């Protein structure tokens, strides 16, 4: 459950934000002034801080400056109803993630907090991921690790390809961790999860008043990644306009915010990923060939799990170790029949699906020895193999969504985050598949 610290001297603002965020599944703590906010942020290590600008004793900018020294990776969102241009410039200089203008709207708060949490998790994940965390003794995965070692010390762009769930973000984070940019930010953009009409604003930022709802200036992901690495996931989903602006940014090293008039220099290494065939997209007119050649300097292809089943025991051991250390779970042991059941399955969701199965086994069979029956009970039904493709895809999607909702105790927002989609999209899919909350 992501944690948010709200720092504001007005109790009604804190109360409103607590109610809004807790309804969305966040854990919320409060502080009444900047000094207390800094101490709580350092001791409690939240995922994001919402900080009012004007407060008695220690104001928001003073607190932001202290946090930039004591917790430099913590995203801080500034809030104000009376901010000047100078305040915004100073907050940006001190590393503020975003500036929200009061009166606050639920939509702007939730979108900003979601982006800040994503940035926080990406930075934390990048710090932990080493090349040896790319698990698997197969020759195919040994080749992937070797390509990462070759690519990481350079500033060359990398295009990571592979099916959904194979670990493309893990590869990108390992490249960042092993590069000279490791101390800089690792910023992720999932192009498929952002509405197409907002992707340019997310990527390049916007100026206040650039469009309806742009109540304050916002730095885009390219600016946030300055000095570090931008991981552009699902790059095939970029609109034509966003592709053109990205190409210009790669060629010139400058970006321009939506509604802006001046170029802004950025020093960013771009790593891109897709589960689609970009050459096919180019032939169909959906992707620019000049952008493809800019991104595909060093290609890395991750094979699907069904093509490297010899990696299953090592992956299960690795995933179980993470469940022990991060969640305190006691995963079961798989007997030979249980492991054989895993090998018989085709793994359309790849390693992400395997991680889901390992977690469910740990919750339902803690510390036990698990046989084939227990494993097969958690896998999608096999008797649908002869059904039409559309029905089989619906079965699999229904199973994934129900599993995510179960793991999130029915919290749709948390389930959407675990499935790496937005809440509105998940609601639409649930309605189409007849899934109740």
Report on the structure:
The chain has about 425 residues and is α/β, with parallel strands linked by helices. The protein has helices at about 10-25, 35-45, 60-70, 85-95, 105-130, 140-150, 170-175, 200-205, 220-225, 240-250, 280-285, 290-295, 310-325, 335-345, 350-365, 370-375, 390-405, 410-420, 425-435; strands at about 5, 25-30, 50, 75-80, 100, 160, 185-190, 230-235, 255, 265, 270-275, 300, 335, 370. It has a five-stranded parallel beta sheet, with helices on both faces. Strand 9 (about 255) and strand 10 (about 265) form a beta hairpin. The chain is globular.
Using only C-alpha atoms, the radius of gyration works out to: 23 Å
Please identify the structural class as seen in this structure.
Answer: alpha/beta
Largest sheet descriptor: 5 strands, parallel
Number of helices: 19
Termini, distance in Å?
18 Å
Mean pLDDT: 87
* Shape category: globular
Give the beta-strand count: 14
Strand content: 5-15%
Catalogue the unreliable spans.
none
Portion of residues in helices? Answer: 40-55%
Spatially, the strands of the biggest sheet line up as 2-1-3-4-5
Q: Quick summary of this structure?
A:
With 437 residues, this protein is α/β, with parallel strands linked by helices. Helices cover 48% and strands 13% of the residues. Strands 2-1-3-4-5 form a 5-stranded parallel β-sheet, with helices on both faces. It has a 5-stranded parallel β-sheet with strand order 7-8-11-6-12.
Which helices and strands occur, and which strands form pairs?
Blueprint: E1 3-7, H1 11-23, E2 27-31, H2 34-44, E3 48-52, H3 60-70, E4 76-80, H4 85-93, E5 98-101, H5 106-128, H6 139-151, E6 158-161, H7 168-177, E7 186-190, H8 199-204, H9 221-224, E8 229-233, H10 240-252, E9 254-255, E10 264-265, E11 269-274, H11 278-283, H12 289-295, E12 298-301, H13 312-327, E13 333-334, H14 336-344, H15 350-364, E14 369-370, H16 372-376, H17 389-407, H18 412-418, H19 423-433
Parallel strand pairs: 1-2, 1-3, 3-4, 4-5, 6-11, 6-12, 7-8, 8-11, 13-14
Antiparallel strand pairs: 9-10
Helix pairs in contact: 2-3, 5-7, 13-15, 17-18, 18-19
